[in-house]
Amino acid sequence: MLFRNCAGGVVFNDDRVLILKNEKGEWVLPKGVVRKGNMPVETAKNRVRIETGIECEVISPAGETSYEFYSISRQKPVCNQIIWYIMQSDDMTPVINKEEGFIHGGFFPIEEAIDKITYSQDKSLVSLSYKKYRKLCSEYV
Questions:
Q1: How far apart (Å, rounded) are the C-alpha atoms in residues 133 and 112?
Q2: Other C-beta atoms lying within 10 Å of the C-beta of residue 81
Q3: Domain residues for 91?
Q4: Is the pLDDT of residue 139 over 90?
Q5: Which of 139, 140, 124, 137 is nearest to 15 (CA)?
Q6: Domain count, the chain
Q7: Which end of the chain has less Cβ packing within 10 Å, N or C?
Q8: For residue range 18-61, what is the model confidence (pLDDT) as tens digits?
Q9: Average pLDDT over residues 92-120
């Protein structure tokens, strides 16, 4: 099995979260593989920018998830281990990068986003991250 370290962002703008719809029709969060010499936090910020054009700041770690799939191109199973970060952006106008395999996306109200998100662990991640985000924001007011 091929193990890949990845990083991604749960990006908030007030009570909205950034999600993407890929070519398979799955609603997901921005993420990507951590390449040699890169830090996970920088990879997460870069993937958000590459996939959506959104500049954001990291507020806190959000946790980790993993999933396995069979790669037809590699002819072997792959396990993606993802480090997630809670992020914030003032920019509400993403430019979805179709060359990266996305067909739609944007900032959605939390409950609507959770309903749309395809995978249950991502739904839980957004829910828990939003609670932490609200708590962190209230501490800085």
A1: 17
A2: 14
A3: 2-139
A4: no
A5: 137
A6: 1
A7: C
A8: 999 999 999 999 999 999 999 999 999 999 999 999 999 999 99
A9: 97
Longest dimension (CA), the chain: 52
Q: Express each pLDDT in 50-98 by its tens digit.
A: 999 999 999 999 999 999 999 898 899 999 999 999 999 999 999 999 9
| Assigned token pair, 9 | 């962002």
Instruction: Output the domain CATH number for residue 56.
Output: 3.90.79.10
Instruction: Judge contact between 105 and 21, C-beta under 8 A.
Output: yes
pLDDT at 141 over 90: no
The residue type of 34 is V
Report the DSSP beta bridge partners of residue 70: 77
